Amino acid sequence: MRHGTQHADVVPTELEAALRGGPFHVALRAAIAARGLPLQRVQHHLSRYGVRVGVTSLSYWQQGARRPQRPESLRAVRALEEILQLPDESLIRLLATTDEGPEPDRLPGRSYRLLVEASGVLERLLSELEAGTDGGLHTIGHHERVRIGAHRQLQARESQHIVRAHKDGVDRYMAVHHGDPGCAPERIAVHALENCRTGRVRWHQDTGVLVAELLFDTELRTGDTHLFRYGFEDGTGGASCEYVRSFRLAGGQYALQVRFDEGALPVRCHRFTQHSPAAPRGGRQELALSGQHRSVHLVEPRVRSGILGIEWDWE
Question: Out of 106-120, 187-201, 233-247, 299-313, which region has the weakest mean confidence (pLDDT)?
Fold first, then answer.
């Protein structure tokens, strides 16, 4: 017997309103919160119904960043109605009446809300490490290499950074990594590769933000430059569809290369820019995937404040 009819009269008021008026993601989020289930438990319950859905997909569904429409996804939604003790067809009905929203089942970029949450978390983590957002360093050049793994996940990234001190006594740099939804920041490894060593590391579970203190062997004076290399070994998140870099200040050269595993190649790649997380994406330019090295790249001789990145589509 379906739980919906049996439990409809004990559905909390807020959830009842969400189920009545939608949208789907708000109702789903309210239902999961009302039952007090972490997404890992929801995923486990779904597996008992013979439905396979990743924690990342569930997270996207309740954020409103992706909408279930494929047959397997709709099976999951019907199972969720039972697992979350909702009335029959309550979630399916909201999907049927949704006229607009994200492209169905498409892996999206991070939502504006998540980026705002992450920025607030970053400030708190930097505060814990007694570091400001400036740090006394200006970037002269930054070359990043990102590696996407066989399961479409952000496997690793490596940075070569050249900085110039604009005050005396600078002896460290705060490196920031933002994992994809579903990542486990406590399992992300920090590698100090050249001219630095790893200090304190802090992370935030929900947003996937990690801050690593990289210590120099010398104190820089005003005008001194320093070249150092570091990396993050991730591979803990879901399928990745973009790599984004935010620039608070203009200046300096930036180069980004994204390399894909031979067993997981995207169908198309684009570079893009944004003035802010809330602004529409512009400056789109298709990037050709190199055959032998399975990579795309962009070079910005002098960055502007804002957001720059590469996005890709999976088949």
Answer: 106-120
pLDDT digits (tens, 9 = 90+) for 43-77: 989 988 888 888 878 888 887 777 786 777 888 88
Report how far residue 62's alpha carbon sits from residue 12's, in angstroms, rounded to the nearest whole number: 18
Burial (0-12, 13-18, 19+ Cβ within 10 Å), 233: middle
Neighbours of 287 (CB within 10 A): 18
What is the C-alpha separation between 74 and 96, in angstroms, rounded? Answer: 11
Place of tokens 């930097």: 126
Exposed (0-12), middle (13-18) or buried (19+): which is 95, by Cβ within 10 Å? buried
196-221 tens-digit pLDDT: 999 999 999 888 899 999 999 999 99
3-state helix, strand, coil in the chain (%, to 5): 30, 35, 35
Domains and CATH numbers, the chain: 3-96 (no CATH), 112-313 (2.60.40)
What is the DSSP code (8-state) at residue 290?
Answer: P
Evaluate whether 106 touches 66 at the Cβ level (below 8 Å): yes
Which ranges of the chain would DSSP assign to H, the alpha helix?
3-7, 13-21, 24-35, 39-48, 55-63, 71-83, 90-96, 112-128
Can you read off the two tokens belonging to residue 42? 């929801």
Strands 282-287 and 295-300: unpaired
